[in-house]
Structures are given as structure tokens and as C-alpha cells.
UniProtKB/TrEMBL annotation:
It comes from Agarivorans aestuarii. This is Glyceraldehyde-3-phosphate dehydrogenase. The lineage of its organism: Bacteria, Pseudomonadati, Pseudomonadota, Gammaproteobacteria, Alteromonadales.
Amino acid sequence: MIRVARADMSKHYFRQLLFTTFCTFSAQAFASFIEPIDGQFDLGHHLAENAYGFLPVPILITEPALGYGGGVAGVFLHESEKEKNYRKQQALTSLDSGAQLVPPAVTVVGAAGTENGSWLAFAGHRHSWLDDSIRYTGGIGVGQFKVDIYNDLGGLLPSDKAIRFNTNTKGVAGIQQLQFRVAKTPLMLGLKQTWSSTQISSDNEIIDAILNYTMGNKTNNSGLGLLAEYDTRNNLF
């Protein structure tokens, strides 16, 4: 009986020690998120030390026309040693953690697919130079989308008698933009270009012939325009 009591007492002390250790560690961890300048909760120091690297982003697709599916995108953030030291200095010395930081170079690569055979793959990159005086963003994607289309002729046909045909769209699309900062202001001016090349078809011979007649075998679209952006964010995210 004595041994059992001592064993129970040992378990009690062990649990108490474990609980005390956990509370101490939690308190220290929370204290590391307190800004010493104003005494407020602040993640600035943590972000300054652990800001950039690799971030996996899950993609969930629940679109009924495509079916359930998913994918993943990998976000890679890059910075030079000089940019890292500057960012840390600004984040740690800013009173309200509102220092405007030089945005990092970001590369994104990803892919996704659905149960009906639709899929998409894409890649993009964003970079800035001369203390964020020049910004470039570009991306490209390729994919195939299978979509069933229903037409009840404006309600004349019951839903179970609606005309149904499938479409299969294949294509590639890209976008890029180049911006220049106006003096030291938050105003960015630049050019933006979009481009796409797509091909649409259907298993239904009549619908496929109509699509070919109205849209052609392949469609190319391109656009070029001016871009103005007033950006006062203290960081990209």
C-alpha cells in the first residue's frame, strides 16, 4: 500500500512538473510576441526572423460543372542577404510595425485537377528592383477544362428534357506587367499585357460544327493596356 501511494504521489508530482513546464514555456513563447517598445502583442519580431521561405498552399475545387478535385501550389519567397538585413532592421525598429518593407521576390508553381478530367498547371514570378522602384509580375498557365452545358430553351423544356452537350476547352494563357514608381510616392505606373490561345470542341458533331463555324478551330486573344496602382501597404501580404 505504501509503494502504491508513493507511486501515485510520483505520478502527481510528474504531472505537476509537466504542467508547470508547459505553462512556463507558453508564457515565454507569448512573451516573445510582446513588442518591448509599446508592450503590445506583436508578431513583428517573429516575422522578421522567419519571414520568407517555402509555403505550400492547398487548392480545393467543388465546382459542380467540373466535379470535385484539388491540387497544390508551392510559393517560394526569395531575398538577398542585404534585403533580409534591411527588412529585419525596419521590422524591429518601427514603432507601429508599419515600416514599408521591400517586397520579396515570389515564385509560384502549382497544379490542380478534378474528377471529370479537367486539369490546370501554372507558374508565376514577381520581382522588384532599385528599392521597389521597378516591379515586374508575370505568369503562365496551361490546362484543359471539360464542362457540360444544359439549355432548357428559356424554360420551354422540362429540366430532365433539357438539351445537353459537353465541351472540351484546351488552352494556354499568360499575363505580365511592368511598373515604375513615380519619384518616392506610392503611385506606380506601367504596362500590362494579357494573352491566351484556346481551342474548344465537343463530342456532339452538330455542336462541334457550330463551334468551329462561330469560333474557329483556335482562338487567340491579346491585350495591352496602361496600369496605375496606388500602393500604401507596408508589406506584400
